[in-house]
Write a structure and sequence with these properties.
mainly beta, hypothetical protein yedk fold, five-stranded antiparallel beta sheet
Length: about 270
């Protein structure tokens, strides 16, 4: 049985979704990462139904068609309310960009929005979370930029063929702010990262990496708090099937995080 989490126990109080660190200088450096922008348009009720969530600790979600690093995003995890209590699925808020619990400050989180599947059980920043703090960051789809001859890039939106919500395999951490006393409402910062894997041949021409997407029949396996050993986590990672996503070329308006609306996922004119 998973013990109650230290710090925020899956959410203690409702949280709004905000964009605390917008890129006001122009284009976010999407070429430096994989899965650096995605879409969440579903309501809280939609997500709770799609992922059989028992408890929500967030305010009603506002659609975002250009989620960017350091945004506050919906995270699905399992936690128990006490040592002898059963675990339940919870919808909580997290900042995108993982801050390890041992970090001196949260500044490096913006660089840890992705974790490579091949090394996630080994890297100090991720291995403890891979063992004990797995969850889903959820989205309608995500954006990638295909490099073309001559140095240009084509923005592409990748989504499920049936427009089902995608469960991005995620890790999360709870970072305690050393400058705040115990019991302070902002003492703990919950952050998360998306695990990536090698792209299939069908999508590899767009980018050589893709988010690791958990299929519905493996939701419980991925969230299982009893799976903690490195060998078992590695076996779980290796058992994930290849996703079947549909690419759609979209407008370069998505390059700017200040643009945010349903027009961003429409086919480019």
């Amino acid at each position: 049985m998973l013990p109650p989490s230290k710090g925020p126990p899956g959410g203690t109080g409702r949280q709004a979704f905000t964009r605390p660190c917008p890129d006001t200088t122009g284009i976010l450096r999407h070429d430096e990462v994989m899965c650096g922008r995605y879409v969440v348009s579903k309501s809280t009720a939609d997500l709770m139904a799609a992922f059989d969530v028992h408890e929500s600790y967030v305010d009603e979600l506002q659609p975002s068609y250009n989620v960017a690093p350091t945004d506050t995003v919906p995270l699905i995890l399992v936690r128990s309310s006490g040592e002898d209590e059963p675990v339940s699925r919870r919808l909580v808020a997290a900042r995108w960009g993982l801050v390890p619990s041992w970090a001196k400050d949260p500044k490096g989180g913006a660089r840890l929005i992705n974790a490579r599947m091949e090394t996630v059980t080994e890297k100090p920043s991720f291995r403890k979370a891979a063992s004990a703090r797995r969850g889903f960051l959820v989205g309608d789809g995500y954006y990638e930029w295909e490099k073309i001859p001559g140095g240009g890039k084509i923005p592409t939106y990748l989504h499920d063929a049936d427009d089902q919500v995608l469960a991005f395999a995620a890790l999360f951490e709870n970072w305690p702010d050393p400058n705040l006393p115990d019991g302070h409402p902002h003492k703990w910062l919950r952050t998360a990262t998306i695990i990536t894997t090698a792209a299939t041949d069908a999508l590899g021409h767009i980018h050589d990496r893709t988010p690791l997407i958990v299929p519905p029949d493996m939701f419980s396996d991925w969230l299982d708090p009893e799976t903690t050993s490195e060998a078992d986590v590695r076996a779980l990672l290796d058992s994930m099937p290849e996703p079947h996503l549909v690419p759609r070329v979209v407008s370069d308006r998505v390059n700017y995080v200040r643009n945010n609306g349903p027009e961003l996922i429409q086919p480019a004119a």
